[in-house]
Amino acid sequence: MVGTTLTQIRTRIESLASDDGTYELVCGRTGERPVPVDGLRFPDRSTAETAARAARQYRSALRRYDPKVPYYDLIVSEYDDGPGIGGANATADGWATAGATPGLPEPPSDLDLGADADGGPECGDGGERSERVEFCHRVAAAVFEALVDADHRAVETAVMDSYFDLAETMSSADDLCLRLLESMATALHVHLTSAEQADVLERAASHLASRPDSAGALGATLAEMERLDLVGSYTCSPWRPGPDASTRSAELTLEGYALSAREGRLPVLPVVLDLYRRAESWKPVSLHVTPAEEGWHATLSVSSKSNAVGLASVPIHERAAD
Asked: Which residues pair with 13 in a beta bridge?
């Protein structure tokens, strides 16, 4: 993407929000709180107006790739738990911050993105916005940015179409983010070769926070998945050597995995992308998945020499007979 990225804009908006803020942004026509300001509150009107400009820039950027992205007339509203637009009461001068008129381009933003793309504050519980929702959106945004960078237009369109289809039918932000990752993993599998998938994952990892040390990367990834409740619990065996010194493998079990199987395949995009982010030297080359008692059993193979393999969605194999 040329210029400011979606990831940077969203991070900037989130840096303006506060858990105990008394102002929020809603659509003056429908009362909706659209992405990327859904569930966020801001400490004062001026800050909320800055966030509104950033949100319009974010949605305008999306519209460059999908002209069907809906317009919203964003207004600053003082939040309370009583009746009003979407549960908030819009004050009269809030209408001055309205966004674009439907059918017309949104105005350009003079937003100063001084914050680092990955340096914004971590989002807490924040009401409707769980850390799991936040993580899922960051993964989705990073992958979308990577698709734009690599000029995979067919996949961009498939992902955006899926997102808006889901957004129109789902009211839960948590469920929406999970289903979006499932759809995104499927789109990567359907439209891209394994090498292209691997390239997209490498690019997406570069859009996320700086890579931690690679030592213990697999354990750190699984612990993060459990912390975010993307996995209920897990086990992980020690690494065992492969046919040569450049390969190794580990046995995993994942119970309570939050993403659902689709057409005989398991979407593992968030797990694999987090592993890409952490393990600079050892790249995933195989992930063999079978059903287990309370979830999934997997054999992960990595290599320090072979090219990485695209593993956004992997086939589910039959469990071996006892």
From this structure: none
Average the pLDDT over 183-205 and give the result. Answer: 92
Closest residue by Cα to residue 56 from 76, 39, 42: 76
Among left, alpha and beta (phi > 0; psi -120 to 50; other), residue 3 is left
- Split at pLDDT 50, 70, 90, the class of 118 is very low
- CA torsion through residues 97, 102, 104, 106, sign: positive
Average pLDDT over residues 150-174: 77
Three-state SS for 266?
strand
Token pair in block for residue 179: 């289903």
The residues near 121 (Cβ < 8 Å, ≥ 6 apart) are 14, 15
What's the CA gap between 67 and 57, in Å, rounded? 14
Domain spans in the chain, listed from the N-terminal domain onward? 1-103, 214-315
Arithmetic mean of pLDDT over the chain: 78
Cβ atoms of 299 and 287 closer than 8 Å: yes
- Closest to 252 (Cα-Cα) out of 235, 240, 239: 235
Predicted pLDDT of residue 32? 83
Q: What is the dihedral of CA 36, 171, 125, 212, to 10 degrees?
A: -60
